Amino acid sequence: MSHSNPTSSILNQNKLEGPNYVDLKGNLDIVLTSEGFKYVLVEEIPIKSTDATYEEIKAYDKWFKVDEMTRCYILVSKANVLQSVHDVCL
């Protein structure tokens, strides 16, 4: 994730520390919406069957990549001590 990205800098400057969960959630909402990533939090992953069409494969691959980026944004928004606890989730 690039440090020149203005949306990611919001999260870098406002990490989850102590009682600021509501503020962080609002900032995370802004970042995910502006990046077009928020849908992975509410939509199910598209099915990628063995006989999937090109469009279905493309939709699956896109969802998977956006989900990965969303996880990164969430992790970067946590204080370092919390990041290390959640490294096993990746």
Would you mind describing this structure in some detail?
The chain starts with 5 loop residues before the first helix and ends with a helix. The relative contact order is 0.16. It has 4 helices and no strands. Helix 1 packs antiparallel against helix 2. The chain has one domain. Helix content is 59%, strand content 0%. It has helices spanning 6-13, 21-35, 54-76, 80-86. It is an all-alpha fold.
Put the structure in a nutshell.
This protein is an all-alpha fold and 90 residues long. The chain has helices spanning 6-13, 21-35, 54-76, 80-86. α1 (6-13) packs antiparallel against α2 (21-35).
Tally of DSSP β-strands? 0
Termini separation (Å)? 16 Å
Model regions low in confidence, pLDDT < 50 over at least 5 residues: none
How confident overall, as mean pLDDT?
79
> What is the percent of helical residues?
55-70%
Characteristic terms for this protein:
single chain; 90 residues; mainly alpha; 4 helices
Task: Outline the fold blueprint.
Blueprint: H1 6-13, H2 21-35, H3 54-76, H4 80-86
